[in-house]
Design a protein that fits this description.
Layout (H helix, E strand, L loop, with lengths): L1 H9 L7 H12 L37 E3 L17 E10 L4 E10 L29 E4 L2 E4 L2 E2 L2 E2 L1 E3 L14 E9 L6 E5 L6 E5 L3
């Protein structure tokens, strides 16, 4: 219970019911968007970020594709100088829990013409350490004129591989992994713009409630 209270304080939601955070984890792991009971298993269901794992193909349900993000060559390198050329991203959906939290579902694919692996960590927010450096914590959303970063618990990004039992720190050439992460969302927001590092913003993604 103390860990949940700490998480609650760390994302500046001291007056929001504890159930909101638990609901977000259910959103991350539940069948609301993907209709697969396998999503309710693994590290995310326990409220913690997954650890690195071996690369390999993902066998899972076919996800809806709402939009394809357009790669921005001018932003190909991250703050560490790591090249993200060859990355492809698809937006699969955004689900709100009705209590101020929402989850973005998206897919990262390695379409590079080299054998170099491409991991979610290349899309991490600058200045993050620990587990967060292998997570796509740099993804943001914009709605109602304001930009919002992915939420963190201490130094843990609330972003996960989906399903969480399938866990990769890198993606081999020609492979892809579905991802999901938690944001604050206004009860009046109907659409969000998704900003993924190295890609042009993707506007008009509907908020599912």
């Amino acid at each position: 219970m103390r860990a949940v209270r700490t998480m609650k304080a760390s994302i500046h939601m001291s007056r929001r019911p504890m159930a909101a955070l638990l609901a977000a984890l259910i959103l991350l792991t539940g069948p609301a968007l993907h209709a697969s009971p396998a999503l309710a298993e693994g590290p995310a269901a326990q409220g913690r970020a997954p650890s690195p794992g071996p690369a390999g193909p993902t066998a899972g349900p076919t996800l809806p594709v709402l939009a394809q993000a357009k790669f921005n060559p001018a932003d190909a390198k991250n703050s560490n100088g790591s090249d993200r050329t060859g990355a492809a991203a698809k937006i699969n959906g955004f689900k709100a829990d009705g209590q101020g939290l929402g989850v973005l579902y998206w897919t990262l694919r390695n379409e590079s013409d080299t054998s170099e692996s491409l991991g979610p960590g290349k899309f991490a927010a600058a200045g993050r350490w620990g587990e967060s450096v292998i997570q796509p914590s740099g993804v943001r959303i914009v709605y109602e004129g304001q930009r919002h970063a992915t939420l963190f618990h201490e130094n843990w990004c609330l972003c996960y591989r989906t399903p969480p039992g399938i866990d990769y720190s890198s993606i081999a050439q020609g492979e892809e992994i579905p991802l999901s992460q938690v944001f604050l969302i206004s009860p009046t927001a109907t659409h969000v713009t998704v900003e993924i590092p190295a890609f042009h913003p993707v506007p008009d993604i509907p908020v599912q409630r």
